[in-house]
């Protein structure tokens, strides 16, 4: 059987609790398929700051480098909020991880499970039957990383500045990811830009149009980012794959995720060229409920499923996990965040949800 | 009596139709108050392109310069969509107007009128009783205008780039606008930035905090733009005044507007230092219904009301217009876009809505 190395970075807040369930599901995958997962735990975020002095310690980077994939929990909390932004758990861990490992393609599904439409703040008629949008965000370029960036001058003469920049190859490779994903889904890509104002967007649009020619079976449309922020609210079902540069993707993927009403259900993948990737829940570390054993582990478990699929090529096992999650939802299992007290629902804690998913596997 | 000069730029699509009603309401204001409005019509947008060769003709600029305020309709339509972005009606007219007249403060109220909550795609329980958010967007700085900006290189070596830049005085003056507005409303300012990633945002936050000290009666909070895009969907009522730099304001003001479900109701003001300003509906030119006399003139009429208030200091007249609009809504008058076929509603066309508002005045 194959052996895969996984760097396990539980992080802060509910991270360790939900990670524990994901790892138990991983055990079940080992038992069912002919595969071994060698796991090495490492500190990240607030746990990194507290135990090793920084959000992304060197030991953690080295453990990740020696692994085939990173399974990431969540980071951050009030304890570290007064640190300078650069040193805070979120920014201090995530941005360097993305850069060091070249995680240029961020995949964030925003899915409403039909049984959970009640959790959305959108009206029933807008989301009847659920929706399924995949936001593909460029993650290592644009205004996040380009230079120059800084604050110059003294006192009232200061100016703060950032640079949004994209090269053709950067746009090409993320566009391929979007079209390849669309091919396996609804066959539609909506590319987001602000080409009426930004030069980087003019290039973005032109390159996307060029790459689209290689995918005649996939429909390409373009939308300005301001309009996209509106259209997501108005009629999310119009979208299949949404392709965005880094900052627009940050904003729109969060908006789309919140529209589902169940952040605790949404996984994400951040992929490098080749098979390396980092997998993390879309929601935060939820410090308010940490340590109580009541957090929803589904996003972490589905993130682990994405790891099986994208880094280890275990499509069947990933599908089995998706199906097990769908099944326990149909059976009425609900952690507190998705409990609506309807007939047939059963309130469970983190571990019981893990048990149910393992049983369904 | 006073005499004010108004540049009237109806533009394209439904622009001329809704403008006609706003001007009839302006007649009613003249009749009621001791004031004269000298109006000069000028081409803008597609009408500018068709009649004078560009989206913002020189004659139009000169007419605006000779006026005390600009009343703007809406621009754009399929006819001009294949032009280069720079020459298109929206970008080609709006960005130069903002720059030439120093319209640095964009005020965009996102209001759900209690009688129109049904139009929102948000659930009744999320918006019960309506909500009232005022987005204040910096409009002449940031990534829209800063240099360098362009595309360099050849073929696959090309890079596209833009610069996001803010100076201290630019941040200070828009922050004053936000705090002064908040003082007259809910006394809360939420400043939006991405200070965990952008240097311009680090400066933005620092300057906002400094100015806030002059307004101890107003509560200041900060939110990252991605979180704001989520929070607007989750619970819009948590916001009073939202303060944004140019691009974040573009995105969030559109999202907030769409959350109300009735774009045809929302006015906007773009103010210069002093009393000069430009006033325009938030919605677009709606070419699909243009020429049929069925468009909703309320956004245009409320925009005119903002002109009376901000450029001419006629607060009473502006309030009277707001009240007249509220009254006709209570009376059940509905143009097609806000008609829900409920008991007491009466479907009217553009002109009948204008008549009703004039009668209510
Ligand atoms: C923490 C922050 C730097 C990060 C981002 O903006 O990318 C986060 O919002 C995300 O989306 O993962
Ligand atoms: C047309 C475009 C340049 C403009 C902008 O982005 O500012 C528009 O979206 C707006 O918000 O007025």
TrEMBL record, chains A, B:
> Any idea which positions bind NAD(+)?
77-90, 284-296
Lineage of the source organism?
A: Bacteria, Pseudomonadati, Thermodesulfobacteriota, Desulfuromonadia, Geobacterales
The alphabetized UniProt keywords are: Amino-acid biosynthesis, Branched-chain amino acid biosynthesis, Cytoplasm, Leucine biosynthesis, Magnesium, Manganese, Metal-binding, NAD, Oxidoreductase
Example of a GO biological process term? L-leucine biosynthetic process
Domain Isopropylmalate dehydrogenase-like span(s) in chain numbering: 5-357
Binding partners and assembly: Homodimer.
Record's family? Belongs to the isocitrate and isopropylmalate dehydrogenases family. LeuB type 1 subfamily.
- Where is it located? Cytoplasm
What GO molecular functions are on record for this protein? 3-isopropylmalate dehydrogenase activity; magnesium ion binding; NAD binding
Per its UniProt record, the required cofactor names are:
Mn(2+); Mg(2+)
Q: Name one Pfam family in it.
A: Iso_dh
Q: Which residues bind substrate?
A: 98, 108, 137, 226
Q: Name one GO cellular component term.
A: cytosol
Name this polypeptide is given? 3-isopropylmalate dehydrogenase
Q: Where is this site: Important for catalysis?
A: 144, 194
User: Which species does the entry assign this protein to?
Assistant: Geobacter pickeringii
Report the Gene3D superfamilies cross-referenced here: Isopropylmalate Dehydrogenase
Q: Which reaction does it catalyse?
A: (2R,3S)-3-isopropylmalate + NAD(+) = 4-methyl-2-oxopentanoate + CO2 + NADH
- Its primary localisation, in coarse terms, equals cytoplasm
């Amino acid at each position: 059987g194959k052996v895969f190395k996984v760097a396990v970075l539980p992080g802060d807040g509910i991270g360790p609790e939900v990670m524990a369930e994901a790892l138990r599901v991983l055990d079940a995958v080992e038992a069912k398929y002919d595969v071994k997962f060698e796991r090495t735990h490492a500190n990240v975020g607030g746990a990194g700051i507290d135990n090793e002095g920084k959000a992304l310690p060197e030991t953690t980077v080295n453990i990740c480098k020696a692994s085939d994939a990173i399974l990431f929990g969540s980071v951050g909390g009030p304890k570290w909020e007064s640190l300078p932004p650069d040193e805070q758990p979120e920014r201090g861990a995530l941005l360097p991880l993305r850069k060091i490992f070249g995680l240029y393609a961020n995949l964030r599904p925003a899915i409403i499970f039909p049984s959970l439409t009640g959790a959305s703040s959108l009206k029933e008629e807008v989301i009847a039957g659920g929706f399924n949008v995949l936001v593909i965000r460029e993650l290592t370029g644009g205004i996040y990383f380009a230079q120059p960036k800084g604050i110059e001058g003294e006192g009232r003469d200061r100016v703060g500045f950032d640079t949004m920049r994209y090269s053709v190859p950067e746009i090409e490779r993320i566009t391929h990811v979007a079209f390849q994903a669309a091919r396996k889904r609804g066959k539609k890509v909506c590319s987001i830009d602000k080409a009426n104002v930004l030069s980087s967007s003019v290039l973005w649009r032109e390159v996307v149009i060029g790459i689209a020619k290689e995918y005649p079976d996939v429909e390409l449309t373009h939308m300005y980012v301001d309009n996209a922020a509106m259209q997501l609210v108005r009629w999310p079902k119009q979208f299949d794959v949404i392709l965005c540069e880094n900052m627009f993707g940050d904003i729109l993927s969060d908006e789309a995720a919140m529209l589902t009403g169940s952040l605790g259900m949404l996984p994400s993948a951040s992929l490098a060229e080749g098979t390396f990737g980092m997998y993390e829940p879309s929601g935060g570390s939820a410090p308010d409920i940490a340590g109580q054993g009541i957090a929803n582990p589904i996003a972490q478990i589905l993130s682990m499923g994405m790891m099986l699929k994208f880094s280890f090529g275990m499509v069947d096992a990933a599908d089995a996990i998706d199906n097990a999650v769908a099944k326990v939802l149909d059976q009425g299992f609900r952690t507190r965040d998705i409990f609506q007290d309807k007939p047939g629902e059963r309130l469970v804690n983190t571990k019981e949800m893990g048990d149910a998913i393992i049983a369904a596997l």
